[in-house]
Structure to design on (112 residues):
């Protein structure tokens, strides 16, 4: 499995709209994408108007499928003007849970 950690700074006045939009993208990711195993939306406690995303995908093909999905394309076109600078992204490989662990957790992601 691979994961990404994305930091997005949002222009003043757009934070609440951004959060609403990212919820839709996150829900679509775990609901509609077989290769998405995690999509966490985190609000920074120390930096105003900053969101962090932690996402886990089966492989690079699943990540590319995510970026081609209708919910992602809609989200990105909606929120990109609200970015306060380019997003920062860190790519990683997961160690724990195991790949099988991520697979077994998938059904519970749909219980919001």
């Amino acid at each position: 499995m691979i994961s990404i950690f994305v930091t997005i700074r949002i222009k003043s006045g757009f934070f609440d709209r951004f959060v609403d939009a990212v919820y839709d993208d996150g829900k679509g990711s775990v609901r509609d994408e077989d290769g998405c195993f995690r999509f966490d939306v985190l609000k920074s406690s120390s930096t105003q108007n900053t969101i962090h995303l932690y996402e886990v995908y089966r492989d690079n093909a699943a990540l590319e499928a995510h970026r081609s999905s209708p919910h992602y394309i809609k989200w990105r076109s909606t929120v990109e003007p609200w970015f306060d600078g380019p997003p920062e992204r860190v790519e990683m490989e997961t160690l724990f849970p195991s790949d099988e662990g991520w697979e077994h957790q998938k059904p519970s992601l749909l219980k919001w």
About this structure: The helical segments are 15-32, 60-68, 70-79, 99-105.
